[in-house]
Amino acid sequence: MAEAMLRFSRFYSANSQQSGEKTISTQRDPEFSSILKNETERQKHTINLIASENYASRAVLEAQGSLFTNKYAEGYPGGRYYGGCSNMDAVENLAIERARKLFGAEHANVQPHSGTQANMGVYHALLEVGDTVLAMSLSHGGHLSHGDHISFSGRYYKFVHYGVSQGSELLDYDQIEKQALECRPRMIIAGASAYPRLIDFARFRAIADKVGALLLVDMAHIAGLIAAGIHPSPVSYADVVTSSTHKTLRGPRSGFILCRQQYASKIDSGVFPGIQGGPLMHAIAAKAVGFYEAMQPEFVEYQHSVVRNAAALADELKQAGLRLVSGGTDNHLVLVDLNSTGLTGRMLEQALESVNIQVNRNAIPYDPKPPRIASGIRLGTPAMTTRSFGTGEFKRVAQLMVKVLSSPDDARVRKQVSAEVADLCKRFPIPDIA
Asked: Could you say which DSSP state residue 194 is in?
């Protein structure tokens, strides 16, 4: 074994020196190298309108690809179960302090591997199996981990779901309060994955207090807007706040939890050893970098641009005759109803992908179609705003989308749109990458 490792070490060292390469994959792993090259080209040449995606900075990518990958650091700073963790403690404490400062929180846990696992950790810490939870229905814009029947959450806890008003397609807080009084939940969850309007966290707090429930806010989609002060913050209202780090926040793909100090010990134990083993220290390092970037003045202006661009995209689609769920947007996403077009969400998603515009099909409230087909598409502006798209570019993208929607099988239209998409991507490259 030792001789084999020595040969591998020599192979790696010699290989790394060729052409300045730093990784073994590009020299001696052609299969992976090919896939990586293909994905790089796809990202470079695609207009990405998926609301839950973004482009991490070079600094975040370098941190997540760093040698922090090599260290196992089970436990928390000052209480690890392995030696050699002084730098692990330093980087995790850095991420914790930056998260607390960025959002004004009393306590932060930066170990969850994703937003869903952040939610899982909170449930494990503060609920008993079978407890009642009131949350937004996935079909109205909620999230799988908010009690959908195919999720662990729906299997282990008794979820009651609220939705939006059929007329306004906005949250009906009076109806939510009525449901809370009827089901008397142990916890109420606010937050969504496809709700284009501001959320009234103060009203959710009042409802939770009225029925003696805990309030969890899942801010995964709007964390960047909250950090920049554009969307009201839930931190002063919620008992616990969960989030992913890669959407509007533009960090690595991971998660974190914020909470009041009185819940800190339970939350930490709920994450480890409750649902996870050793933390991903390279991801925590990248979170520290991402939180730092979100503290900069440029980040605030970026988030303002995200919202302006979403409004411009929405207005252009409306002018083209498309119906938007709730009539528009207050945040980073737009939900489009396709029922009047003759296309399903899946059909338009595939048609747009053929011209290198990436969207995702999405259910709309009271959708008659199953989720895999869907009557709508969800659009988001964070990723292309990172590539410096402004309102003019987003209006043009809306026009290109309408061209494809109007003639989804016309090869000439697809060719014209593809050429313009290629030009836009060339003029607005991925920062620091392409």
From this structure: S
Secondary structure (3-state) at 424: helix
From 76, 119, 81, select the one nearest 95 (Cα to Cα): 76
Q: What six digits make up the tokens of 215?
A: 């309030």
pLDDT over 80 (residue 320): yes
Both ends of the chain: CA-CA distance in Å?
41
What phi and psi values does residue 107 have, to the nearest 5 degrees? -145, 145
CA dist list (Å): 129 to 133, 182, 269: 11, 20, 17
- Residues 248, 272: Cα–Cα separation, whole Å: 27
| DSSP type of residue 161 | E
Amino acid identity for residue 34 in this structure:
S
Distance between CA atoms of 279 and 262, rounded to whole angstroms? Answer: 23
d(CA 152, CA 325) in angstroms, rounded, equals: 29
Q: How far apart are CA 256 and CA 116, in angstroms?
A: 10
CB within 8 Å of 86: residues ≥ 6 apart: none
Contact 109, 266 (CB under 8 A): no
Residue 188 backbone phi and psi in degrees, to 5: -115, 135
- Length of the chain in residues, anyone? 434
pLDDT number for residue 368:
94
Nearest to 404 by CA among 333, 350, 330, 337: 350
- CA dist., res. 318 & res. 402, Å (int): 11
Residue 10 scores a pLDDT above 60: no
* Predicted TM-score (pTM) of this structure: 0.93
pLDDT at 158: 97
The DSSP secondary-structure symbol of 164 reads B
